[in-house]
Amino acid sequence: WEGWCNLTVLDISWYNLTTIPTGILKLWNLEALDISNNNFLSFPSEILALTNLTSLTAYSNWFTSIPTNISDLTQLTYLNIGNNALISLPDNIGSLSQLERLSIWENQLMELPLTLWNLSNLQELFADHNVLASLPSSLGSMSSLYQLYVPHNEIESLPTSIWDLSNLTYLSIQNNQIDAIPSTIDWCISLVLLRADNNLLAGLPAEIGNLSSLYILNLANNQLQTLPNNFSWLDGQLVELTLAGNSGLGNLNRNFSDVASGMQVGTVNQSNTTPTGGTTTFNFPDVNRHSNIT
After folding, report:
1. Residue 284 pLDDT > 60, yes or no?
2. Measured between alpha carbons, how far is 44 from 86 in angstroms, rounded to an integer?
């Protein structure tokens, strides 16, 4: 590795590595490291000496734990440790004060450390396909969060502190066991997308009709019997509304008929959506939870 001392980006994914090549530890200027899709049985703690790292991609290995001194990577803004075998995260992960994007998808996490909510700069959290039963009540302290992606868990309820997330734009909570959406949802004034399909919702709070930025609402495969009286407030605003699989809505009440008659329905793709007859352009979020190195 001599002569590579000025290297700032290194991708050594897909090499079936079980140990870190010792020469890498001399790359003091390294800012982005990708060690994903290898065969590390444990997190290679020696890379924590690379304190200039701002991006660490380490998904699809066999980690069962993360060392507590992960906090040594004080410059880290991106951390992807998805698709491992993690059953917990160290409390020190909450010390990564510069972190903006955290991917912990497809592990065996049953809970998230309370310290995680100290990450006031975190913008995106991908924690899908774990076994989370709840989200901490301190969720609302993550003031910069705009994308929360926690489908395919065992979450039974959302903390009422979610109303503090005024920047939250994309909320994906589908395929859980959630039976109610808190009435404080309308404080999420920036919410554009809400996916709550495949849960146990029997009703909706009236406050959901106050979400003036909402474009996409998916409530499929729940146990809804009726819609709030003020649901028509979303008239002409929604681009996509999905209610399939709610047998109790067989005879939709009058307020929904009003919504359907005025709704601008457009074609949804993976980039932009322009409602038919309208001028609004909707930009979908980046849902790539894998590599941060392009």
Report:
1. no
2. 14
CA–CA distance from 66 to each of 44, 48, 129, 159, 233 (Å)?
9, 11, 18, 27, 47
CB atoms within 10 A of CB 202: 14
Indicate the residue type of 235. D
CA distance 202 to 221: 11
**Which pLDDT value is given to residue 161?**
86
CB-count exposure of residue 29 (10 Å: 0-12, 13-18, 19+): exposed
- What per-residue confidence (pLDDT) applies to 268? 32
Q: Cα dist. 81→56, 217, 285 in Å?
A: 8, 30, 20
Tell me how far apart the alpha carbons of residues 158 and 49 are, in angstroms, rounded to a whole number. 38
Question: How many Cβ atoms are within 10 Å of 4's Cβ, its own excluded?
Answer: 13
Question: How much helix, strand and coil, in percent to the nearest 5, is found in the chain?
Answer: 20, 15, 65
Chain-centre distance for alpha carbon 31: 24
Q: Which tokens go with 248? A: 């109790």
Query: How far apart (Å, rounded) are the C-alpha atoms in residues 249 and 142?
Result: 36
pLDDT tens column, 184-202: 899 999 999 999 999 999 9
CA 154 from chain centre, in angstroms, equals: 15
Q: According to the model, what pLDDT value does residue 136 have?
A: 86
**pLDDT higher than 70, residue 176:** yes
